[in-house]
C-alpha cells in the first residue's frame, strides 16, 4: 500500500507538471516534508522525480509545438550553472540545522510573490497586453534564478520560469509551459547528479514516483488543450497560494492541515478538469 500511495502521488503531481510546466517538484517537496521527510532528502527525491515527469511532459508538448527551443536551451544551460552554486548553500544549512525553517521560509516568500504576479498577469492576458520580447539577457537571468531555486528547494525551477516567461518574456502560457519543461530537464538532471554523491535517498520510492510521473505528465499536457491561456495562469496562481498555506502549516506543526489544503486543491483541479473535458467533448459531439 505504501508503494501504491507513492505511485498514485507521482501520477497526481505529474499531471500538475504537464499542465503547468512546473516540473512537479515544488508540489512534491513540501508534501514529502509534510509526511516526515528531511528537507535535503525531500529535495533530492523530488529532483529525481522531476527528471521523469519533465521528460514525459516534453514529449507531449513537442507534439503540440509548445516549445521555444532556443530560449529553452538558454534557460536550461544557465540554470545548470546555477545548480552548482546552490548545492553548497543547502548542505551548509543542513549541517547547522537551519534547513528545517530556512527552506520552508524561502518557499513562502517566493511562492507568495509569484502567486500575486500570476494572478495579476492573468488580467493582462485577458486584455491582450502581452508582447513577446525574449531578450537573451532576460532569458539567461531567469534560467540562472531558476537553477538556484531548483537546487535550493528541490523543485524543477518551472514555478520560476513559467511566471517570469509570461510576465517578462511575453510567452503565451502554453508556450511558457512547454519551454519550461524543456529547460527544467537540464536543470534537475544537473541538480540530482550533484546531490546524489552526498545525500542518501530511498531509490525505490523515487523510481516508483517516476513511474507514476511518466503516466501523469502526458495527461496533464493534453489537458492544456481544454483551457485558455488566461485560465492556466489563474489556476497556477491559485496553486501557489494553496502551497504557501500548506508550507505555513508545516512551520507551525499543523502538518495534517497542510496535507488537507494540498488535497483540496488537487481535488478541485481534477473536478474542474473533468467537467471541462466532458463539456468540450459533448459540444464537439453535438457539432
UniProtKB/TrEMBL annotation:
**Residue ranges crossing the lipid bilayer per the database entry:** 6-35, 42-62, 74-94, 101-119, 139-169, 176-197, 203-223, 258-277
- Where is this protein found? Cell membrane; Membrane
Superkingdom per UniProt:
Bacteria
Cite the entry's keywords alphabetically: Cell membrane, Membrane, Transmembrane, Transmembrane helix
Topological relation to the membrane, as annotated: Multi-pass membrane protein
**Database matches in InterPro entries:** TM_pro_TauE-like (IPR002781), TSUP/Inactive_protease-like (IPR051598)
Q: Does the keyword ATP-binding apply?
A: no
Q: Which family does it belong to?
A: Belongs to the 4-toluene sulfonate uptake permease (TSUP) (TC 2.A.102) family.
Protein name, per record: Probable membrane transporter protein
Species source reads Cytobacillus gottheilii
Amino acid at each position: 500500500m505504501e508503494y501504491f500511495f507513492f505511485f498514485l502521488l507521482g501520477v497526481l503531481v505529474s499531471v500538475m507538471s504537464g499542465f503547468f510546466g512546473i516540473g512537479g517538484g515544488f508540489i512534491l517537496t513540501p508534501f514529502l516534508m509534510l509526511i516526515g521527510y528531511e528537507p535535503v532528502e525531500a529535495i533530492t527525491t523530488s529532483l529525481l522525480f522531476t527528471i521523469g515527469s519533465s521528460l514525459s511532459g516534453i514529449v507531449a508538448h513537442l507534439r503540440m509545438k509548445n516549445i521555444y527551443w532556443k530560449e529553452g536551451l538558454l534557460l536550461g544551460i544557465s540554470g545548470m550553472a546555477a545548480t552548482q552554486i546552490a548545492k553548497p548553500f543547502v548542505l551548509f544549512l543542513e549541517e547547522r540545522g537551519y534547513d528545517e525553517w530556512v527552506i520552508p521560509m524561502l518557499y513562502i516568500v517566493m511562492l507568495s510573490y509569484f502567486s500575486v504576479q500570476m494572478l495579476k498577469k492573468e488580467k493582462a492576458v485577458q486584455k491582450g497586453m502581452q508582447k513577446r520580447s525574449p531578450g537573451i539577457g532576460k532569458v539567461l537571468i531567469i534560467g540562472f534564478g531558476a537553477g538556484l531555486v531548483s537546487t535550493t528547494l528541490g523543485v524543477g525551477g518551472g514555478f520560476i520560469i513559467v511566471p517570469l516567461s509570461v510576465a517578462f518574456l511575453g510567452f503565451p502560457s502554453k508556450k511558457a509551459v512547454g519551454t519550461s519543461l524543456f529547460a527544467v530537464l537540464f536543470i534537475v538532471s544537473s541538480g540530482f547528479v550533484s546531490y546524489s554523491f552526498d545525500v542518501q535517498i530511498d531509490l525505490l520510492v523515487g523510481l516508483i514516483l517516476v513511474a507514476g510521473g511518466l503516466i501523469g505528465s502526458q495527461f496533464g499536457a493534453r489537458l492544456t488543450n481544454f483551457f485558455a491561456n488566461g485560465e492556466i495562469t489563474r489556476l497556477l496562481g491559485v496553486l501557489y497560494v494553496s502551497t504557501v498555506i500548506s508550507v505555513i502549516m508545516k512551520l507551525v506543526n499543523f502538518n495534517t492541515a497542510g496535507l488537507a489544503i494540498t488535497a483540496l486543491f488537487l481535488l478541485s483541479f481534477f473536478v474542474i478538469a473533468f467537467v471541462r473535458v466532458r463539456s468540450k467533448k459533448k459540444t464537439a459531439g453535438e457539432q
